[in-house]
Amino acid sequence: MDFQLTDDQRALRAGVRELLVRRFGREQLRAAVDAPELDRALWRELGEAGFFALRLPEAQGGVGLGLPEAVLAFEEAGRALLTGPLVATHLAAGEVPGAATGESVVAAVDGTLVEWLDEADVVRGDVTGAVPMRSADPLTPLHRVSRPAPPDPVAALLTAAEQLGSAARTCELAVQHARTREQFGQPIGAFQAVKHLCSEMLVRVEVARGAVYAAAVTADPLDIAAAGLLADEAAELGARDCLQVHGGMGFTWESDVHLHLKRAWLRARRGQSAAEAEEALAEDLVAAAPGPRT
Amino acid sequence: MDLSYTPEEEEFRARLREWLAKVLPGLPPKPSPDDWPGRRAYDLGWQRMLYDAGYAGLHWPADAGGRGATPTQHLIFLEETEKAGAPYVGANFVGLLHAGPTIAAEGSAEQRARWLPPVLRGEEVWCQGFSEPDAGSDLAALRTRARRDGDDYVVSGSKIWTSHAEVADWCELLVRTDAKAPKHRGISWLAMPMDAPGITVRPLRTLAGSTEFAEVFLDEVRVPVANRVGEENDGWRVTMVTLSFERGTAFVGEVVACRRVLGELAREARKNGRWDDVPLRRRLGRLNAEFRALWRLTQWNVSESERSGGVPGVGGSVFKLRYSRARQDLYDAAADVLGPEALDLDSPWTLDRLSSLSYTIAAGTSQIQRNIVAERILGLPKGR
Predict the structure, then answer these.
(1) Which of A39, B40, B265, B378 sits at a 20 to 30 Å CA gap from A129?
(2) Where along chain B do the CATH 2.40.110.10 domains lie?
């Protein structure tokens, strides 16, 4: 058993991170907040880098990698707060023309919501009579639809990966702030009340990481359900605690913390609800042979 | 990222399962919790069986008499013995997981030859003399003092929370050998024979009603200087080696056990009708997610230590923080499955619920663990 990243996986993660820092750093992020349009050039660049075609077999012009690699790429996307219907377009690679290369923007109905409807070239699911919402996430336009689409396990896993990336990032932001912000003549990170908030953030991240990566390896629906619960918790509570550590500054529009929190709330509404995941995991306990097989 | 096991690892698992199936039915009945001589004999008997079958000191280095097994093989061992319902490490805990590995890492050739084989063969029991009434979380503030007198140290002071003290042959003892040095720099690590004159053991009752640990009073106890492991006044560093072992794989079997208990809870709830209580049912589902994730984190940490050459990292603190809380949540859920029956000490899980309260305290309180995570992993400044 070697449940650690391989050298290739580390290189892939570093490559995606480098691309996103260069093409979707803080400046572009804040520009997107002011003008939430999909950057088509960036979308094509993501396509060229293989972000959408990652799991498409090489025979079909894809990269031919698996779920673990996709999870690492989506973790980086979550970390950078990358915008656009990433999951829907990734899942459409090889099925919708232009999705794999990033020439098409594909949106999809998820539950009773659809993200990025107006910007999409192709929409999967029934969007008859879709009504726009004033989206709580300034970086994600939302519509309400009346015909819900059933949840997709792979979409749920990639969403959990995004949540994990966001949770890790908010933990970093909180720690950076706690090390530099001084009050009472010392960095606030020297105070145990703040220290312990940060420690708990890291604990939630690491527990979620184990669950998300394992679900990527097994692709087991129950592993994915567990990963979703833990990653949602890590992202939502992480952003909240990060906001708390930032104090008044965290409550301003200028800070990035609320962007993580709002996106975490939005992602938590994708796929099956927490209640459905818990019910499935409860049912597993009374099944003939409970628990993972590995 | 790979969760599959190599053919060698699967072979190891299969042979172990076979052996467990063969020997477990012939075990004597478990002694009662307060029968200390009985517990000692039972635990040492099990250790002897492991030794004869070649499973003793699996994770110890080969040059210390161990099998030099990989962390993954050790994980498989802990998982399979738990699944098969084999005895716990019990009274062998300190010898196998603390004192033994410490002596293996820091002891002289003579010391290794004297103390390691009897631990592996199930002949000697060790206890741990670290904590004191005034040195709990602040372990380095310990005051039990040792003054040199010829070839002996003369030791006076008191220790507390000493598990298995009543039946131990040896105590891994931290003493202050230099009162003037800064507190971390005047400590030494001694192996103290528990039959030496001047030692008084007074059992303490836990809130679960059992005598799991004791106070140990030391009045001018003579310990040979030859029993010091590591240099004089270097005991703190020697101890940190020990504690890293403790937080390594100490809880693997317990995670497996918790998952079994969770299944039992669900079946009990099905039987007694509490399964129809939607919030309770969902809580059990969330606990399933929790313990699955803790198992994955365990596999992650074990793989990490395998890559780094068997060194447990600070990741153990992350695991311990979450696991100790999850274990308490599990038994709180058990109480809600049982309803009023949870107040009956004879109900299943009631004593376990009481015992679970120690998990956020023993082996470094959650508050101390959070400081460790914040300072050593996140790099936040040390508080005053």
Answers:
(1) A39
(2) 126-232
Give B280-293 pLDDT, tens digit per residue: 999 999 999 999 99
CATH topology of domain A154-285: Butyryl-CoA Dehydrogenase, subunit A; domain 3 (1.20.140)
For CATH 1.20.140.10, list the domain ranges present in chain B.
248-378
Out of B3, B263, B373, whose CB is closest to A3?
B3
Q: Report the pLDDT value the prediction gives residue B248, as an integer from 0 to 100.
A: 56
Distance from CA of A119 to the nearest CA of B (A): 36
Cα A238 to Cα A250: distance, rounded to the nearest angstrom: 13
A238 interface with B at CB cutoff 8 Å: no
CA angle A102–A107–A112, rounded 5-degree value: 165
What residues of chain B lie within 8 A of the CB of A229, using their CB?
Answer: 286, 289
- Whether the full predicted model's pTM is greater than 0.85, yes or no, is yes
Which tens digit of pLDDT belongs to each residue from A238-271? 999 999 999 999 999 999 999 999 999 999 999 9
**CATH fold of A7-150, please?**
Butyryl-Coa Dehydrogenase, subunit A; domain 1 (1.10.540)
> Do residue A192 and residue B371 have CB atoms under 8 angstroms apart?
yes
For chain B, how big is the Rg over CA atoms in Å?
A: 21
Domain B248-378, CATH class in plain words: mainly alpha
* Fold of domain B126-232: Butyryl-CoA Dehydrogenase, subunit A; domain 2 (2.40.110)
Taking CB atoms and an 8 Å cutoff, what residues of chain B touch A224? Answer: none
Chain A: closest CA distance from residue B100 (Å): 27
> Low-confidence residues of chain B, pLDDT below 70?
242-249, 310-314, 384
Dist. CA A126–CA A128, nearest whole Å: 6
pLDDT of B264 reads 96
Give buried/exposed letters for A46-79 (b at 16+ CB in 10 A, else e). bbebbbbbbbbeeeeebbebebbbbbbbbbbbbb
Q: How far apart are CA A54 and CA A65, in angstroms?
A: 6
State residue A287's pLDDT score: 86
Q: Answer yes or no: B246 catalytic.
A: yes
Chain B: residue nearest A195 by CA?
Answer: B374
Contact criterion met (CB < 8 Å) for A282 and B285: yes
Question: Which residue of chain A is at minimal alpha-carbon distance from B269?
Answer: A286
